[in-house]
C-alpha cells in the first residue's frame, strides 16, 4: 500500500513541480532586474509588479538640507505601523536630515550608510538589491526606501497588524492549568513558547512556504535534546513542500505526514503553549504556521492523543484514575455499538437472562434488524454533532438538546429504535468526547462504522478480526521514524508509567525513550550538550543504552 | 521471543489435552513437559546454528553449510531439498490451523454460516499482513501476544474452581515408552513453529549471545508452561476418560468457565473471539514466512512487491486446499503428518546442519552482508 501511494504521490508531485518551475521561470524573467539608480524607474517597476494595487502606498519625499536627494518609501497599508513610519522613518528622513549637510558629490553608498546608521531609528534594517525578495518583504509588512542614485533599497521592519488577543483555547479546555492559547500571529506564538522556556538551546527556524502566500512557518525544538534525525527529517520534509498556499498548519500536516491514507492522524495539534512546551521538553519538534493557532507536534504516538496537559497539574491518583476512565471510554466509543450488534444478533447466550428478556421486550416493536437500527442512530448522532458545530453557539446547544432528548425519546416511542440502542449510542457519543484531542477521537469515530458492519456479519469473530487488522495497521504506521504504536510495541515498560497511568513527577525523571532524546534525564540540565562532538558521542552511547534497555524490557 | 510463542500457540492447544491423555492418562502433563523440554533443546540448537551465520536466513546459510558458498545457482537448487520441508510445514500450519479453527467457530458460534465465509474472512486478514515488512509483523505479534496470554491465564485460573485434583492422581503411573512416543508424535505438532528463528534471527538486533539465547528459550518456555498448565487443568476438571471423548477439550473448558456474579452469562464466545488472535498470528506468521522465504530464495529485486503478489496468487490455492476435505478428521491425520515433518525439520535437520557446520568450520554472514538484506533494519523478534 505504501508503495502504491508513494508512486501516486511522486507522480503528482512531479507534475506540480513542472508547473511550478515553469511559473518560477516566467516570474524570474519578469522581475530579474535588480534595483537601479533611477528612482522613478524603480517605482514604476514596483507599480508594475503590484499592478497598481490601491493598498500599495508610494510616498515620495526629499532628503537633506538642500532637498536634493529624492527618495520614496513603499509599504502596504494596514500591514505597517503608521506611527513608526511617520515618527521614525519619514520624520527622521525628512526633518532630521535637514540639519546635516549632506554633500551631493559624496559617495552615494556612504550617504545611504549614514542614513542607515544615524538617521533611521527603527529596530531592524537591511539592504536589498533584488526586486523579488524586496517585494516579498514589502508584502509581509516591511517598508522599503529607495533613494535616487542608489542601486539598492533599505528594508525596515515596520510590521504591525490587527490581531486577536490571547484567549483561552477553545478546543482543549482544562479545569486547572494556564488559560492562554495560541493566536494567529506567528511571532506572538513563538514568544509564548519563549516566555515559558527561557532556554538558550531553544531553536526557532523560519521557513517561507507557499509560492503565493509566502507563509512564515517556524520549526521549533530544543538543541541537544531533540534527536537530530527527527529534526533533519522534519527539515527535509519542510523543504519538499510545494504548494501555492498555506492557510493553516493543517496544510503542513498533510504535506509532511507519513501515511496519507490512514484514518489515524500521525501528527498531533494543540492550541496550548503549555502542552507545546511539555512536548518540547520531551524532545519533540514543534511546527508553527503563521495564521494558524494550532501548533503541530512531531513525532506523535497513538497514546498521546489520550493525554491532556492537565494530567500533570493535578495529583497522581486522581489523574491516573481519569486516564483510566479515558481508556475505558476509548474502548466503549470504539466497541460499544458493534458489541451490542454482535451480542444481540449472534450471541444472545452471553447476555444474562433477565437483561435478555428486557432487551427482547424493547426490541419486539422494532421493525429493523439491529444493524439498521444502530446505523440509523449512529448516523443521526453524527449529523447532530456536525450540525451543532456549524451552528452559532447558543443555537448549537439547543439543537443538541432537541436532537438528543426529543428525537431520541420520540423515536423510541414511535417504535423506530429500542431503548437499549439509544443508551448504547448516547454512551458511545459521550465517550468519544472524553479524548482530549479532537483529531485522535475522530479516527475512532470513523473506524466505528466498518466495525459495526463487520459485527453484523461475523459477530464477535468479525470484531476481533477487524481489531487485529486495525492493530496491524497501527503497528505499520510510523511518525517521523518513531513507531506510532510505541510504547506498546516496541515495548518500553519504562514509558508505561506515563501512558497507562500517570506516575508521580518524581518518577518521571527520564524522558520517553522511544523518542530517543539525547538528554535523557529531566532532573539536571546537561551543559555539555552544546558541544557537538560531545553530543554525538553521547547520542551513540545513549542509543546503545536504549537498545539494551529495550531488550531488557523484552525479557 | 514473542514471535516464537505466538507462532507456536495455535489450534494445537485445542486438541492437545486429548492427545496427551490418550496414552499418558492421568499424567498427561508429563508428555507436555517433555515436549517442552525437547522444543527447548531444539531451540537451543537452532539458535546456536543461526548465531554462526549472523545476518543469514536459512535460505542463505543452508547452501553455505552444505557447500561452503551460497552464490552458485546449483547450490541453491540442491539446498531446496532441505528448504522444502520447512515450507511444507509452514504451509501445513496455515492450512490446518485455519481449517480447524473455522470449524470450531462454525460449531461454537455460527452454526448456520458456511465454513468458507469464516475462512475467507480470516485469510483476508492474513493477506493484509503480507503487505507489511517483517518489522511490522514482529511488532504486531508483540502487541497481540499479551491479549492471548492473559486470556489463557484467565481461563486456566477460572477453571481451577471446577478442578478436582483427584483426577490427576495417581501421579506417577505411566509407561515411559508410551509417554515419549506421545510427546514426540502426538503432541509435538502443537510445539512446532519455532523454526522461524531461522528467518527472524537475521533481522534481530545484534545483542549479546546470552541475551539471544534467553529471548529465544523463554519464548519457547512460555508456550510450554502455558500448555502444561492448560493440560493439567483440563484433566483436573474433566478427568482423562471424559477428555478422550471430547473433540476440543480446551473449548469445553472455556464452556464450563463462568465468572461468578459477572455481567456476561457465558464466556466461550468471548474466549473463542480472543483466540482468533492466537490463530491469526500463527496462520499469519506461517503464511508470511512461507512467502518470505520463497521470495528470498528466488532473490527478487523488489522483495516486498514480489511477496505481496505471491501472497495474492497463493491465496485461492490455500483456500482450495483448506476446503478440499469435507471431513475434519482428515485434518487430525494431517496434523500428525505435519508433526512428523516438523520433528524432522525442527530437530533432525538443525542437528545435522550444526554438526556439518562445526565439522567443516563454516561460518558466514559478515557485516558486509547487511546491505544485501531485503530490509536492513535490525529488529528484535
TrEMBL record, chain A:
Domain of life: Bacteria
Region annotated Disordered, chain positions: 519-555
Biased composition (Basic and acidic residues): 519-543
Transmembrane segments: 324-343, 423-444, 451-474
InterPro entries given in the database record: Spore_Ger, UPF0353/GerABKA_families
Biased composition regions of type Polar residues, renumbered to the chain: 544-555
Keywords: Membrane, Transmembrane, Transmembrane helix
Family recorded in the similarity comment: Belongs to the GerABKA family.
PANTHER family: LEUCINE ZIPPER PROTEIN 4 (PTHR22550:SF5), SPORE GERMINATION PROTEIN (PTHR22550)
Protein name: Spore germination protein
Amino acid at each position: 500500500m505504501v508503495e502504491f501511494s508513494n508512486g501516486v504521490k511522486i507522480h503528482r508531485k512531479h507534475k506540480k513541480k513542472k508547473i511550478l518551475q515553469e511559473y518560477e521561470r516566467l516570474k524570474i524573467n519578469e522581475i530579474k532586474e535588480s534595483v537601479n539608480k533611477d528612482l522613478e524607474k524603480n517605482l514604476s517597476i514596483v507599480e508594475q509588479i503590484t499592478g497598481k494595487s490601491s493598498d500599495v502606498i508610494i510616498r515620495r519625499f526629499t532628503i537633506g538640507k538642500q532637498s536634493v536627494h529624492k527618495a520614496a518609501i513603499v509599504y502596504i497599508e494596514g500591514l505597517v505601523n503608521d506611527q513608526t513610519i511617520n515618527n521614525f522613518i519619514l520624520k527622521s528622513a525628512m526633518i532630521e536630515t535637514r540639519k546635516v549637510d549632506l554633500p551631493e558629490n559624496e559617495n552615494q553608498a556612504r550617504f545611504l550608510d549614514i542614513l542607515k546608521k544615524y538617521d533611521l531609528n527603527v529596530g531592524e534594517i537591511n539592504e536589498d538589491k533584488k526586486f523579488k525578495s524586496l517585494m516579498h518583504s514589502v508584502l509581509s509588512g516591511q517598508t522599503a526606501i529607495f533613494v535616487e542614485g542608489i542601486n539598492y533599497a533599505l528594508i525596515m521592519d515596520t510590521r504591525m497588524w490587527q490581531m486577536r488577543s490571547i484567549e483561552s483555547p477553545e478546543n482543549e479546555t482544562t479545569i486547572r492549568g494556564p488559560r492562554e492559547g495560541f493566536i494567529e500571529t506567528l511571532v506572538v506564538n513563538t514568544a509564548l513558547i519563549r516566555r515559558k522556556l527561557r532556554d538558550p538551546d531553544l531553536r526557532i527556524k523560519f521557513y517561507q512556504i507557499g509560492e503565493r502566500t509566502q507563509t512564515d512557518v517556524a520549526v521549533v525544538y530544543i538543541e541537544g535534546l531533540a534527536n537530530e534525525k527527527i529534526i533533519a527529517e522534519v527539515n527535509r520534509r519542510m523543504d519538499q513542500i510545494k504548494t501555492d498556499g498555506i492557510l493553516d498548519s493543517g496544510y503542513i500536516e498533510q504535506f509532511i505526514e507519513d501515511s496519507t491514507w490512514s484514518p489515524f492522524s500521525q501528527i498531533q495539534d494543540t492550541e496550548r503553549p503549555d502542552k507545546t512546551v511539555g512536548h518540547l521538553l520531551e524532545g519533540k519538534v514543534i511546527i508553527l504556521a503563521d495564521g494558524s493557532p494550532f501548533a503541530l507536534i512531531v513525532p506523535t504516538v497513538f497514546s498521546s492523543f489520550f493525554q491532556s496537559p492537565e494530567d500533570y497539574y493535578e495529583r497522581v491518583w486522581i489523574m491516573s484514575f481519569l486516564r483510566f476512565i479515558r481508556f475505558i471510554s476509548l474502548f466503549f466509543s470504539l466497541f460499544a455499538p458493534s458489541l451490542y450488534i454482535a451480542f444481540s444478533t449472534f450471541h444472545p447466550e452471553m447476555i444474562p437472562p433477565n437483561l435478555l428478556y428486557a432487551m427482547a421486550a424493547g426490541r419486539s416493536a422494532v421493525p429493523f434488524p439491529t444493524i439498521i437500527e444502530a446505523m440509523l442512530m449512529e448516523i443521526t448522532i453524527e449529523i447532530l454533532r456536525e450540525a451543532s458545530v456549524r451552528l452559532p453557539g447558543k443555537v448549537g446547544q439547543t439543537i443538541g438538546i432537541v436532537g438528543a432528548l426529543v428525537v431520541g425519546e420520540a423515536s423510541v416511542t414511535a417504535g423506530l429504535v429500542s431503548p437499549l440502542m439509544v443508551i448504547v449510542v448516547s454512551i458511545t457519543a459521550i465517550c468519544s468526547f472524553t479524548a482530549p484531542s479532537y483529531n485522535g477521537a475522530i479516527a475512532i469515530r470513523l473506524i466505528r462504522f466498518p466495525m459495526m458492519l463487520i459485527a453484523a456479519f461475523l459477530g464477535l469473530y468479525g470484531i476481533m478480526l477487524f481489531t487485529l487488522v486495525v492493530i496491524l495497521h497501527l503497528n505499520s504506521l510510523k511518525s517521523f521514524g518513531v513507531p506510532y504504536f510505541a510504547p506498546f510495541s516496541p515495548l518500553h515498560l519504562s514509558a508505561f508509567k506515563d501512558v497507562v497511568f500517570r506516575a508521580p513527577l518524581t518518577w518521571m525523571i527520564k524522558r520517553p525513550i522511544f523518542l530517543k532524546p539525547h538528554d535523557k534525564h529531566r532532573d539536571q540540565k546537561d551543559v555539555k550538550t552544546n558541544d557537538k562532538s560531545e553530543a554525538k558521542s553521547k547520542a551513540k552511547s545513549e542509543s546503545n543504552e536504549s537498545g539494551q534497555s529495550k531488550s531488557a524490557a523484552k525479557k | 521471543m514473542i514471535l516464537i510463542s505466538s507462532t507456536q500457540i495455535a489450534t494445537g492447544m485445542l486438541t492437545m489435552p486429548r492427545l496427551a491423555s490418550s496414552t499418558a492418562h492421568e499424567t498427561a502433563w508429563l508428555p507436555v513437559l517433555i515436549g517442552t523440554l525437547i522444543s527447548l533443546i531444539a531451540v537451543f540448537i537452532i539458535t546456536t546454528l543461526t548465531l554462526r551465520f549472523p545476518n543469514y536466513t536459512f535460505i542463505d546459510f543452508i547452501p553455505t553449510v552444505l557447500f561452503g558458498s551460497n552464490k552458485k545457482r546449483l547450490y541453491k537448487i540442491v539446498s531446496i531439498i532441505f528448504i522444502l520441508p520447512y515450507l511444507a510445514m509452514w504451509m501445513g500450519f496455515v492450512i490446518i490451523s485455519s481449517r480447524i479453527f473455522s470449524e470450531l467457530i462454525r460449531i461454537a458460534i455460527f452454526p448456520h454460516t458456511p465454513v468458507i465465509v469464516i475462512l475467507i474472512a480470516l485469510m483476508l486478514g492474513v493477506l493484509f499482513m503480507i503487505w507489511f515488512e517483517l518489522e511490522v509483523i514482529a511488532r504486531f505479534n508483540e502487541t497481540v501476544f499479551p491479549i492471548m496470554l492473559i486470556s489463557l491465564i484467565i481461563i486456566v485460573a477460572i477453571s481451577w474452581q471446577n478442578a478436582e485434583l483427584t483426577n490427576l492422581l495417581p501421579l506417577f503411573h505411566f509407561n515411559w515408552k508410551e509417554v515419549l512416543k506421545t510427546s514426540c508424535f502426538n503432541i509435538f505438532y502443537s510445539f512446532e513453529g519455532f523454526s522461524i528463528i531461522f528467518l527472524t534471527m537475521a533481522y534481530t538486533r545484534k545483542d549479546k549471545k546470552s541475551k539471544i539465547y534467553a529471548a529465544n528459550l523463554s519464548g519457547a518456555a512460555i508456550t510450554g508452561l502455558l500448555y502444561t498448565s492448560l493440560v493439567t487443568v483440563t484433566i483436573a476438571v474433566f478427568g482423562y476418560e471424559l477428555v478422550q471423548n471430547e473433540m476440543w477439550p480446551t473449548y469445553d473448558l472455556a464452556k464450563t468457565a463462568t465468572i461468578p456474579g459477572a455481567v456476561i452469562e457465558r464466556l466461550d464466545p468471548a474466549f473463542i473471539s480472543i483466540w482468533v488472535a492466537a490463530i491469526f498470528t500463527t496462520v499469519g506468521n506461517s503464511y508470511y514466512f512461507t512467502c518470505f522465504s520463497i521470495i528470498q530464495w528466488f532473490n527478487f529485486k523488489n522483495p516486498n512487491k514480489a511477496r505481496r503478489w505471491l501472497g495474492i496468487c497463493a491465496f485461492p490455492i490455500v483456500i482450495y486446499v483448506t476446503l478440499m476435505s469435507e471431513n475434519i478428521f482428515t485434518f487430525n491425520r494431517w496434523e500428525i503428518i505435519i508433526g512428523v515433518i516438523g520433528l524432522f525439520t525442527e530437530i533432525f535437520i538443525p542437528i545435522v546442519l550444526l554438526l556439518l557446520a562445526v565439522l567443516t568450520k563454516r561460518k558466514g554472514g559478515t557485516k558486509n552482508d547487511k546491505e544485501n538484506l531485503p530490509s536492513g533494519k535490525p529488529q528484535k523478534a
